[in-house]
Structures are given as C-alpha cells and as structure tokens.
Design brief:
Elements lengths: L1 H22 L1 H39 L3 E6 L3 E2 L2 E2 L8 E2 H8 L4 E16 L2 E10 L3 H4 L4 E4 L4 H6 L3 E4 L1 H8 L8 E4 L2 E9 L14 E5 H8 L9 E9 L5 H15 L10 E5 H44 L1 H9 L4 H37 L8 H27 L3 H6 L2
Parallel strand pairs: 6-11, 8-10
Antiparallel strand pairs: 1-12, 1-13, 2-3, 4-12, 5-6, 5-9, 5-12, 7-10, 8-11, 9-10
C-alpha cells in the first residue's frame, strides 16, 4: 500500500513539475541553458580526449613504440626543413653500422618513388618503396600471402615485388598474384608476396597502395638517375630491442652518426632522428589539452547552470508560497513538498541533459569534420553526461526544496 501511495505521489509531483515547466517555458529554457551548454561541452571534451587516447594507441601499434628513423638533412627551423633529403645522403654502410649497435634489433634503408605499375593489361599509379629484408619487422607489417623479401634477394637486388592490397585489387582484380609478372615503370618483376591489409594511416594515406622491392633494385633499375649516389639508403628505419629505453638508444644512434659523418662538437647535425612514439605523444598531448580546456569550460557551465536552477527555484518557491501553504493545510507533509520540488529540479536537469546530449553529439561530429580531431563517442559517456546533469540539478535544487518544505503553513497562507 505504501509503495502504491508513493508511486501515485511521485506521478502527481511529476505532473505538477511538467505543468510548471510548460507554464514558464521561456524561463525554464533559460534556467536549463547552463546545463545544456555544460553537458554539450563535456561530451565534446570527453569525446576528443578519448579519441586522442585511442589514436595514440592505434598509432603506437602502427609505428611501434620502439622504432626510430634517421633522415638526411638539417633540423627543422620555423616549420620548414633546411635541406631535408637534399644534402649528404645516408648510405648502406650507415645501415650496417647502426645495425651493429647493441640496442638495435633490425635496420633497413628505404627509398621512395612514384611509379606506374602494369599487369594483365591494367595499369595503376602507386608508391614504390625500396627496402631491406628487415623493413616488415621494423614497421610491423605481416605477409598475407606468399613471402617477404629475403636477405639474399635484398643483397643481390633481385627483381621481385611484394604488393599491397590496393595494388592487387587494381592490377589483378583481387586474384592471387603470387608468381605473376608485373612491370614497374620499365622494370619487370615477379610477385612473391602480398602484404596484409592496413587501411588508412594516421594522416589519411592509403597504406595498402604500395609496392615493395629490394632497395638496390629500386635505386639501380627502377628509379635510377645520373645524379644518384650508388649506395644511397634514403632513410634508415630502426627497431629497438624490447625492454630498452628508446631515448637512450636514440642518443647512441646520434653519437654514432656524428662520429661517422665527422661532425665536430658544437656543430649542427646534418641528419635528423625521428622518434615516432615521442612525436605521437606530443601531438596527442596537444589534443588532450584542448579536451581539458573544454572540460574546464563545461564544468564552469554546469556550476553556473546549477546556480541558475537554484536561483529560479527559489523564485518559484516565493511565487508559490500560498500554494505550498494550502497543500500543507490540507494534509501534505514536509517531505511531500520536498519531493515535489526535487522532482521539478530533476526534470529540469533531465531535460537540460537530453538537449545537451544532442548538442554534444552535434558538436563532436562538427569537431571531427571541421577540426579533423580524433573523436570517440562512447555510450557510457553519453549516459553519464545525462546522469551528471540530473545530479547537478538535484544538488542545487535541494536547498530551495528544503526551504519550501520548512515553510510554516499559516505564514505561507498569509503571504502576499
């Protein structure tokens, strides 16, 4: 019986709350505005922060936490490279010297060229990489079909190729290409392997639109030029042994390269070392900072919204003093009045939270489209945001509700 009465009482309180909100629709909307903006901003902030975290995980899985890349050319100044890839090149001897370091598990040179590939009457413009046998290990690529380039094939410059999935689809219509011949520019090669599908990279590039060939084959046959250095290794990719600190190994690499290139103490390096894990972390820290700033803004908006609810409910208590006195006079208890006003606060918070939810989803999509931020909309985040809106409303609505419940019935009936 008590449960039934409680249910009826809550239903009546809900009906009264909805009627009060409809009666003062504009005022109710302005009251909820802080909650709406706060919840919307909170959803955008959390979505960006979670997206940045997921992107960091995906990128580290893609690049590996233990990879380094050595590039020729001076360091960066003012956002522009001073001669990157245009000064003294890195060589095969540099690759072997770096491979001999205690902290290095694998090393490979890498040269790149834009080429046209032809097979079965189809042609496709793609990216050609000249790599060593260790390149797949360093860059965390798996072979889906066939095999990888062997060390012996890399040393003798064999005319073989490993294809990405996009190239297989364009040249062979998805059929198995193992053992088939393709022409890369004017050089004919035999397909020995197919890379597993990688999809789009962190910067939107198609990682499957690629052909691998031995480094020496590319620089001596496919992309040969009169000005090219015969043993040019392009960029050197390195894999650090698991369990070692990448920054310590990076310092060893830098020291060895300075010695090999006879760079005097105090002189600027004529090469650059890229530590992708540090770069990715720095990039995501920037995006996480934006998320933090949005979270601070949303918290401020929620507090302002809560204060707005408290203020408007205090006004409502004053306006409805005679109504409260009448209800008390006909038998309503203090807790009945308290419940009625808490229900009104809850409804305001719930409606504000739901509108803020829609605003947050829209803002998140807009940030992903226009700002190109990584975002992740989690159902837990969305439900939690609405829950926070309700809790804020109840917290700030408790004082006005308690004040209403403690009004003296006789004084309330006499109120003008």
């Amino acid at each position: 019986m008590n449960d039934e009465r409680t249910g009826l009482h809550l239903s009546a309180s809900l009906a009264i709350a909805l009627k009060a909100i409809r009666t003062n629709a504009v005022r109710s909307l302005l009251t909820m505005l802080g909650i709406i903006i706060g919840i919307g901003a909170a959803i955008v902030a959390v979505s960006i922060a979670q997206g940045a975290g997921k992107q960091l995980t995906d990128q580290i899985e893609q690049f590996g936490t233990h990879t380094l890349q050595v590039r020729p050319g001076n360091s960066w100044w003012g956002g522009r490279s001073r001669g990157a890839d245009s000064e003294r090149p890195l060589t095969d001897d540099d690759v072997e010297a770096l491979r001999a370091l205690d902290g290095i598990e694998a090393a490979s040179g890498r040269v790149q060229a834009s080429v046209t590939s032809v097979a079965d009457g189809n042609n496709w413009p793609t990216t050609l990489l000249g790599v060593g046998a260790d390149f797949a290990l360093i860059e965390n690529f798996e072979i889906a079909e066939g095999r990888n380039i062997t060390e012996a094939e890399a040393e003798r410059g064999a005319k073989i190729a490993v294809l990405g999935q996009t190239v297989v689809e364009e040249l062979f219509n998805g059929a198995n290409p193992i053992g088939q011949r393709i022409r890369v520019n004017r050089t004919s090669a035999t397909v020995v392997g197919v890379l597993e599908e990688k999809g789009a990279g962190s910067w939107g590039q198609d990682q499957d639109d690629v052909i691998w060939m031995p480094l020496d084959t590319v620089r001596s046959r496919v992309a040969r030029s009169a000005e090219a250095v015969a043993d040019n290794a392009g960029r050197i990719h390195l894999k650090v042994w698991d369990g070692l600190e990448v920054l310590d190994v990076e310092r060893e690499v830098e020291h060895l390269m300075r010695v090999r290139r006879d760079i005097q103490p105090g002189a600027e390096d004529d090469f650059r070392i890229a530590n992708f894990a540090e770069f990715i972390r720095a990039r995501n820290e920037t995006e996480s900072l934006l998320g933090f700033l949005l979270a601070a803004f949303s918290a401020t908006s929620l507090v302002v919204g809560g204060i707005g609810i408290m203020n408007i409910m205090l006004v409502s208590v004053t306006e409805r003093t005679r109504e409260i006195g009448l209800r008390r006079a006909v038998g309503a208890r203090s807790r009945d009045v308290l419940t009625q006003f808490l229900v009104e606060a809850t409804v305001l918070g719930l409606l504000g939270g739901l509108v803020g939810l829609l605003l947050g989803i829209g803002g998140t999509m807009l940030a992903a489209r226009l700002g190109e931020f990584p975002v992740l909309l989690s159902p837990i985040t969305l439900v939690g945001a609405v829950g926070v809106a309700v809790l804020i409303a109840v917290f700030f609505g408790y004082y006005p509700a308690r004040r209403a419940s403690r009004l003296d019935p006789i004084d309330a009936l006499r109120f003008e």
